[in-house]
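Let's practice the habit of predicting before peeking. Look at the sequence and jot down your guess about where helices and strands might fall. Then scroll down.
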Amino acid sequence: MKHDIVMLAAAVSLLAVPVRASCAQAGSSIPDALVGKASPPSGQTVNYVTGDAATRGYLAIPNGTGPFPALIIIHEWNGLVDRVRQVADAFASQGYLTLAADLYQGRTGTGPEENRRLSSEARGNLPAVIANLNAAQRFLRQRADVTGKIGVMGWCFGGGMALSYALGGEHHDATAMFYGSLVTDPAELKRLDHPLYGTFAGQDRGIPPEQVRRFTAALDSLGIQNDVHIYDPVGHGFWLYVDQEPGTREAPARDAWARLMRFLGTVLR
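Done guessing? Here is the structure:
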């Protein structure tokens, strides 16, 4: 098991991970999407839930013939917006066929009040969320260019949904969560049957470090492989919008991306 607290005062150890041209250069391995410099989304809109025309995901396909390992990524509380689509493109540039799921049936929020209403609606109907993500998996597994290895990843609201799906959805091979709501009861976590990656923020008041430590302790007690880190100098939501506070967010975001690439390369390749 691997879980650390990474302090700003300490040297952040970066993993050696090859980065394709679509990621930011000049010594940085952060995708351009995280710093607001990505090209417009270049994938395709897809309806992946049978009989539901309102639910419109976004599919990013790597160059080449495949087959490729696949990712399902889950948006934050504001819905499936272009920055999430651009991150899907970044994963595709690393060789992962990526489907950005839509848990809001095409809706997006324009501010905290609307975002809260949309996320509360989804949380209040978890069976529908599970069914949505099961449909996403079936959509991917039916493709000839997918190897059959599938991971699920999300941020904030999406991170919590990724964990809920890991505990209640159809089998998949990996879960990655960025500061999502946690489950710390080993009796519930024992349903997790695959490795988990987690990135959390030391200054996050909603998901405090002590709760993260209880979470990793429960995973360890169950023998569940995990790579969970707490980055001390940053707060909730730091990873997807590095450009909002580059001075404090860039180094933790770079390390989190390198860890994520190593994790996915280990469990999905």
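How did you do? Strands lie at 2-6, 44-46, 57-60, 68-74, 97-101, 146-155, 174-178, 196-201, 226-231.
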